[in-house]
Design a protein that fits this description.
The complex is a heterodimer.
Chain A lengths: L1 H21 L1 E6 L7 E7 L4 E6 L2 E8 L4 E9 L8 H8 L11 E13 L2 E10 L2 E14 L3 H5 L6 E11 L8 H4 L6 E11 L2
Chain B lengths: L6 H26 L3 E8 L12 E10 L7 E5 L5 E4 H6 L7 H31 L9
Parallel strand pairs in B: 1-4
Antiparallel strand pairs in B: 1-2, 3-4
Classes of the chains: A alpha+beta, B alpha+beta.
Chain lengths: 200, 139
């Protein structure tokens, strides 16, 4: 009898564990320009300038019940546009971010911790200019079950909208240039990323 | 060669520095007279899915920009009540809005250069006035 009770508990625990595992869904970033945007801003006393792109890819493994997961986001740095063609060219050159050689800006989220409402603390690794550093950031993750809003955006399933900010110290990623020390480009830039993924 | 021989040059350069400094201040105030506090924004198809109000995504922080084409503005306001600048319109029309702080930075550089250069020239002019000019040996 005791053995049967133990087995029943074991089976229940296993079922619970399996159902919990099954709740992790795969969400793929919808690669459409009008759904995603990455903005990098440099703020100095001389000028603020922004660089933007919509070329974002990625996949998230996110459990909406447990509010945790992992994921990878890739931004094509070579497509960043500052509104000044010559500056874009400089950004892609080896003197700056070397996007011609390493176009990928990658954030690999290894740990997602729920904080409150739609806010999450994300721990992961940020890669730029071929250099990877550990980074912790706060992001909002909002899941919208398929409804009129998702349908009007031509999203097949539910949507998972991620809005994250990354503070990136350029010297940490081997981006060193005299104009940074001269104060014409900020030593630290802020990258804002907005992307929408779907589970279908 | 004595300083006194360059009195006119020093005074002219000092006056030129004053004129340049005044010109810089006047040009800067004319340029920034109709400046607009605005923030770049872009329409994103599903902005509401992010929980944002409206359909616009704000790009960067709000800034004071020099006067711009009225067509470059969108309805509504951004952070701190800033007007919305249509980033798509700016990109399509290759418009790069100049910020007031850029104009002010160059105005301040000009003022500093004029102050230093003009001050130096004025000082030399004062010294030149105290020294006697070279006398020609034939005179």
């Amino acid at each position: 009898m005791k053995k049967q009770v133990l087995l029943a508990f074991g089976a229940l625990a296993l079922t619970t564990l399996m159902s919990a595992r099954g709740a992790t869904e795969v969400w793929k970033v919808i690669e459409r320009d009008n759904l995603n945007i990455a903005i990098a801003e440099s703020e100095t006393d001389v000028e603020n300038f922004t660089a933007r792109t919509s070329k974002i890819k990625g996949t998230f493994n996110f459990d909406r019940e447990a509010k945790t997961g992992t994921g990878t986001i890739l931004v094509d740095g070579a497509t960043l546009d500052t509104g000044v063609p010559l500056r874009n060219e400089h950004m892609r050159s080896p003197d700056w971010f070397n996007f011609d050689k390493n176009p990928e800006i990658k954030f690999q989220a290894t740990r997602v911790q729920f904080m409150r409402n739609n806010d999450y603390r994300i721990t992961g690794n940020f890669t730029m200019n071929g250099v990877t550093k550990a980074m912790i950031t706060v992001a909002t993750i909002k899941i919208t079950p398929a409804n009129a809003a998702t349908a009007s955006a031509r999203i097949a399933g539910d949507s998972l909208a991620v809005n994250a900010k990354f503070k990136v110290k350029l010297a940490d990623y081997n981006v060193k240039h005299p104009t940074i020390s001269a104060g014409r480009v900020a030593e630290q830039i802020e990258i804002t990323l907005k992307t929408i993924a779907t589970n279908k | 060669m004595k300083l006194a021989n360059f009195k006119t040059v020093f005074l002219s350069l000092a006056l030129l520095a004053v004129v340049l400094a005044l010109g810089g201040v006047i040009a800067s105030s004319i340029l920034t007279r109709d400046a607009v506090f605005a923030q770049r924004a872009e329409k994103l198809e599903a902005a509401e899915l992010f929980g944002d109000s409206g359909e616009r995504v704000l790009l960067g922080s709000p800034q004071k920009f020099l006067a711009l084409d009225a067509k470059a503005f969108l309805e509504g306001t951004g952070d701190q009540g800033a007007k919305l600048l249509n980033d798509v319109y700016l990109r399509e029309n290759k418009i790069y809005p100049i910020q007031v702080k850029t104009v002010e930075f160059f105005r301040n550089i000009t003022l500093l250069a004029c102050l230093l250069g003009g001050g130096l020239m004025f000082g030399l002019w004062v010294l030149a006035n105290r020294s006697k000019p070279n006398q020609s040996r034939l005179a």
